[in-house]
Amino acid sequence: SKLLGEAGDLVGAAQLWELPLTGNDRKPRPILPSNFMMMEARYSPDGRWIAYTSNESGRNEVYVIPSSGPGGKWQVSNGGGQQPIWRRDGKELFYLSSDERLMSVAITLKTDSVQAGAAVPLFSLASLVQTLSGLVSPYDVSPDGKRFIVVTGEQGRTFPINLVTNWTAALQK
What we know:
Layout: E1 2-7, E2 15-20, E3 29-30, E4 38-43, E5 49-54, E6 61-66, E7 74-75, E8 81-86, E9 92-97, E10 101-109, E11 114-116, E12 120-124, H1 129-132, E13 139-141, E14 148-150, H2 167-171
Antiparallel strand pairs: 1-2, 2-3, 4-5, 5-6, 6-7, 8-9, 9-10, 10-11, 10-12, 13-14
């Protein structure tokens, strides 16, 4: 019933915005105004929490906040983190560490707080650093949290590109 997105410019701070898809007031609104970069947001499966990446500590880290507005904020990553994804039951959060390892954190979502366990490295994606750069979601996880799909590329290979010009002339024939 709501969409999450980012707004900002190349020199300013990206902010998280929410767009209601139902109701009378369908205007975008900032979720948590800040002077820091806030990006890569994901709603929890129950829609009550938002995991996102911010550089407010001086480096990218993963945080969780309530989706309802004001409330607490909990840092989930330790030592750098980005691109969080929830397990489908909301009991685990995955993210990429600053050294490109896929991390897992056990999560307990309470009524008004988040309890995060210690981050556990699952496996390295270091060989895919160039491929992952710039992608919002370079990986996803199965509903049970046991299998992953990762966007990869074939480095060092080139592929031909065919450019067709004046293609509208072919339509008239």
